[in-house]
Design a protein that fits this description.
Blueprint lengths: L1 H24 L15 H11 L2 H19 L5 H19 L5 H25 L5 H17 L2 H14 L8
Helix pairs in contact: 1-2, 1-3, 2-3, 2-4, 2-5, 2-7, 3-4, 4-5, 5-6, 5-7
Length: 172
Amino acid sequence: MRDLNRIVRSLAYVLELLVLFMLQETPGLLPHVYGARPVLVLPAAAVIAMFEEETRAMAFGVAAGLFCDFGYSGVLGFHALVMGVLCFFISLLVRTFLQVNPVTAMLTGIVALGLAFGAQWLFFYYFHYSSPGYALRMHYLPKYLYTLIFVPLLYLLNRALAEALPGEELLP
């Protein structure tokens, strides 16, 4: 029964990432804040990593990163690599040192999204443009803050999913 729950939960996570990707890429669906739109699949992958073991968390991080790579039409594999590594370490940290609760989810989202957007800014803007500070201040910071709003909502969604389909997860 646990294996069936894991399969169903994995399919639900993939469906969640796919729906969030479609929501974030649909023009005009989510309002622009200072010209920025949220990236919904990145916090979803970070929150999923809190409820899954390391290998599965890394796989969902790679999937979310590939969705971002497809949406940004940039270097294919950059976000997959960054999110795969981040989700692996999020899962490892939660399994060894942290508890799964909303505060931990928010702090994890702040750090993980900061690292993901920071890496994107560093490799795509800092070395290639004359005023990378402007891009950071006017593009990446609003996108980062707008995306952080969705972390608690995604935590509640994935917590309910993990409770409905129990397996070898971190819930008490």
